[in-house]
Write a structure and sequence with these properties.
692 residues; alpha/beta; Rossmann fold; 2 domains; 9-stranded mixed beta sheet; 20 helices
Length: 692
Amino acid sequence: MKGWIVSGLAFISLSALGVPDDLPLGPVAPKTDLRMMVRRDIVARCGRLLEEAAQKRETAFASGEWEKWRQEIRGKVNDALGRPAFGAIAPPLNIRPVSRHEQSGYVIENVLFEAFPGWDVNASVFLPDASAYPPPWPGIVIPVGHSGKQMESYQLPAQLFARLGYAAVLFDPPGMAGEKQGRNDHFTDGVRCYLCGYSSNRYFVLDALRCVDYLASRSDIDLRNGVGMTGVSGGGTTTMFAALLDDRIRAIGPSCCATPNAQHPIRDAYAPCAETLAPNRFVDGYDDIDVLAAAIPTPVLLMAGAADEVFTETMSDAIAAAVKRNFSHAGHGDRFDFFKDPGGHAYTIGMALAFVRWMDRWVRETPPRTLEMPKKWEMAAPELLLCHPRREMDIFTANREWARHLRKDRKETVAPETVRALVQAPMETAIPHAETGPATLVWVHNLQEILIESDPGIELPATFLYPSKQNGLSPAVLYFDDRGRWTDLRSNGPLAAMAGFIGRDEQRLAVMTVDLRGWGDSVPADLPYEIAAWGARDRWMTYVSAALGDPIFAMRIRDGLASLAYLRARSEIDPSRIVIGGRGMGGVVALHVALLNGNAAGVFSIEALAAFEMLAESPEYRWPQESFFSGVLRHYDIPALVRSLKIPVLMANPLDAMKTPLAADAAHALFGKATTETNDAVRFVRKLFGKE
């Protein structure tokens, strides 16, 4: 026996008594860094899709079949934007002149017109001095980026274009620093469009296309050779996408906006605006490289700032080289050029002069001319550009109308096959591999920590509480909580009460509570760009996973199915007597798992979102952006899930978009008897198992 003697007294060491030197309790050690696990999985999968897209693109150009490839890309972009109406199929513009201001060397005309009924475009048209450049003038559309048209990066190029003989149209994007603020936020309102299965980029691109329609309506504009379009940052993104839809756009100059997407926003974990990442973008196979190459034969002058902090010089050089190679393979090498300004993330006078030369060549079709910097520059006072657009229609209200339209077309119930297709769940979920820790006796239950491998590289921490003594197989509760798996277990919480914890009778059952990916122990770590005011890990995961074609919420539903398959295979558990439940968005996961599996004894949801459409209906919301399940409202909503279940259901205290409990009559209208029997999930579960 190990021990020692001190002053004649014998002592026995703890190890000699069988007490371990370390702490044998706690979670099972993961093989991966749980806090980086979800991001690394998404990055790897996006990388594979972008590599496949690159191979398909290069094969198309090498084989001479690039025109077919181009049409496929343009069609997918058009679909993602909801096939916006412009040109001959568009509704009337309803043009309303606002004001006119004579400036030194140019004229500003402010005008309002509609992109679609109720949605105003606030256009400031910079016109040349007619004595120096008699009309008709060729036109340039300048989509404004994440700023306002009164800013230098937009005003000064517009002035220069007008002083050199072009009519230039400036307009504010939804939100940002212009006149169209309010419920047009690129993040909080843009993400709503995912619910309806389209990209908020629709509203940015359609404004630009309707500017082309407006120019076509003017007798003093020469559209015989089309128009040009150029913009910086978000305005450059709008330019890139607009060029794929409208053949009237004959030359483009996107600036400080394009990069190989694998670098940005994938591997740098930068949370971009939602409009840049359309649903299914990467699975549909279009990187920024593809968007620019699909513009062929439209002449493209790609511009960048050597000192740009986000779209870095290295990124810009890489994409320019790739796109130039595609133009050359298509026999249009002369229609691509790359201009790099020494400045940063801005539209400079150097860029504006370069684009004028590009327009002179491809739109005006005139010989090169000497372009001189104007001797006098001025910034027009911001009030000279005001148009006072109506604000009744915005991204929020437009998407709300879309959601209501989809509701009218949906059925009252939903088939499991429909849900399975959206979630991308297999018909049968295989029993996943799991690593288990030791079982620890805690009064009359054993507690075991587990790691369930739901996908390669994805480990789900789980806690399993089951009776230490039982006659036959035990009934069980499978539980998902978006706050973490221990939240309702610790301190004799609801899960402990369901299990009959510390009870001395025979009214005990098992509980397994699981951290689905990104919840609990695997909440993603914060990364550098999340210091920015717009940076947020849930934004990045939501937008990038939507572009991946596999929304993070769908991944969690599949995690839930894998967890259920594991629990049903446990030797202690009766697989026919498992109730599935959850809290918050975990409750919504539970409803999906119950419908898809079809063998649960019951399902309950505590303080969960009552309906996805509420996120589209409410001007404000408090649920994380991960809750915006891409495409769901095209097929069903949460009440349809409940109506489709053939097992006992409890919807305990359902919440609205602001996480406020629904009134009893509102809850009953959505869920019927699922909310009327009791709001007590513990009683619901124990009654199902005859434990009361």
